Amino acid sequence: MAKLILAYNFKDYQKAIAYAQNAAAYQHAVWRTQEKVVIGDASNQTQFINDSYLENYQPRSIVCTPLIDRGHLSGVIYLENNLTVDAFTAQKLEMVSLLSGLAAIAIDNARLYNSLEQKVIERTQELSEALENLQATQKQLIESEKMAALGNLVAGVAHEINTPVGNSITAASTLAEETQSFATAVNTGQLKRSNLNSYLDLATEASEIILNNLQRAGELIQSFKQVAVDGTSLEKRTFNLKSYLSEILLTLEPQLKKTPHQVTVTGDETITINSYPGAFAQIITNFITNSLTHAYPTNQAGLLQIDVQQQSEQIIIEYQDDGCGIAEQHLNNIFEPFFTTNRENGGSGLGMHIVYNLVVQKLKETIQVKSQLNLGTIFIMTFPINVSV
Amino acid sequence: MKNQNLATDLSDDNDELVFSDEEELIIDEDVVANEENLKDNSWKILIVDDDNSVHQTTKLALRNLEFEDKGITFLSAYSGNEAKTIIANNPDLAFILLDVVMETDNSGLELVKYIRKELNNQLVRIILRTGQPGEAPEESVITDYDINDYKLKVELTRNKLIVSAIAALRAYRDLLAIEKSRQEMATLYNALATVKDNL
Predict the structure, then answer these.
(1) What chain A residue is nearest to B54 in terms of C-alpha separation?
(2) Cβ–Cβ < 8 Å for B65, B167
(3) What is the nearest CA distance from B132 to chain A, expressed in angstroms?
(4) Over the stretch B33-91, which tens digit does the pLDDT of each residue have?
(5) Quick one: which of A262, A317, A323, B62 has the fewest CB in 10 Å?
(6) HSE-up of B61 (CA within 13 Å, CB side)?
(7) What residues pair up with B152 in beta bridges, in sequence order?
(8) Does the distance separating the beta carbons of A163 and B153 come in below 8 Å?
């Protein structure tokens, strides 16, 4: 409870401060009843007998009035005069009333303002924490999206490798057993020419199968390693652009094989750059995944083209498909995080955002997108050949 | 090519290869005759896989397999859809070596349902071969789908393949026998019913 104490002179002021902590009875009365107390002659009043303050300081006239603003009691004004009785005339009382009304409003506003400032500070704090949380979550989602993509890649590659390895095992074990029986036949002198020819045929075919399949497995592991390791470590190295793009396609074979679409890589074979191959892998994978998921109604066969060119000091990579295209009103939004028009089919809206971040932040390139409905979409990435990132 | 009938010589001092006696022409004829025989009287099996190497390797590993004096005739399908047609046209298939992942992630499993439910072929034995255990984990697959064996491609040495094949052929033979007696009994039952009606 705020206390407003008006002292008449300096001596009284000291007094006032001295007893300010002890609420006097009449102040309490006013607080309780919300009604003015006017005491003309304090020595003669009967309402507050035995109040120690009255006995010690013996004020003469007292007025104590509540500060009420909009029905709400926010304080009490206590005025005393210890020289004269009936000091507070009707006129003075009116002025006190007026002042008390204004004081009530002022005090209330001051309080409100104070608390308002406090509320704003708290709210700002909450908001900035929420923002931090959101940003952390966003980052996490992007990371898990990348991990999920990697997981898919691993599963696809595992299957692709298991088949040629399985074939090699079957063929090699066949060859081993036939060789065994052949060796027995030779050692016991039971060898017939027909056996020899038959064994030779088998050995030739088995060797061919083993060699082809293991080479296939080897190539796949090689490209997968490039793409996966590059993808997670984002290492910078020198590489031939066109061949690396082809390798990326090789690792996407498992998914592409199941679709009627065709993918081509064309362009300048001599371009070698020093950059982040993992970023390219992620970008191309996301482009292709998007084309496969969004651009074609089922069973329509599409053509996905990647082209690499050099123009003076710039390298230009173009990716295009001939699918259903992107609506004009969406073109500006596709790089925003969580923007997708296909959420029901599992689109997270993060693919293009990741691409954008990689292109702009990691590779320091520019990326443009053009599209026409039902004709297709093209992404153009441009970067200087001597990027000193 | 001309063979020379050379005497067997067990000492290997000389470099020349010596072959045991064989009557070449007769053997050749026999071989030809055998082949024809086998084709008419052989177990029919189907290889289903989208990878051509798998067909080639399987034929290589099983090429001399004989069971109860019958050889093997190989049929090939490279997709789930192609397989459906071939199986529908060949109700006497003994067993199918089936890949799981072909045009879709569970083409193979869908084919199993098709064979047992739509074609109602309960006789043919189905051996599932997979390159990717993640797509069709063993226990749930063998429980939920009416297949008769489940193998990972990388565990299939020729030996294991032959063992699986013989087991499948044996089971098929037994099922055929049961089916035959069932049909005989059905015929008998109908005959009896007719007789009873005529009484």
Answers:
(1) A167
(2) no
(3) 5
(4) 444 444 468 899 999 998 888 999 999 999 889 999 999 999 999 988 899 999 999 99
(5) A262
(6) 29
(7) B130
(8) yes
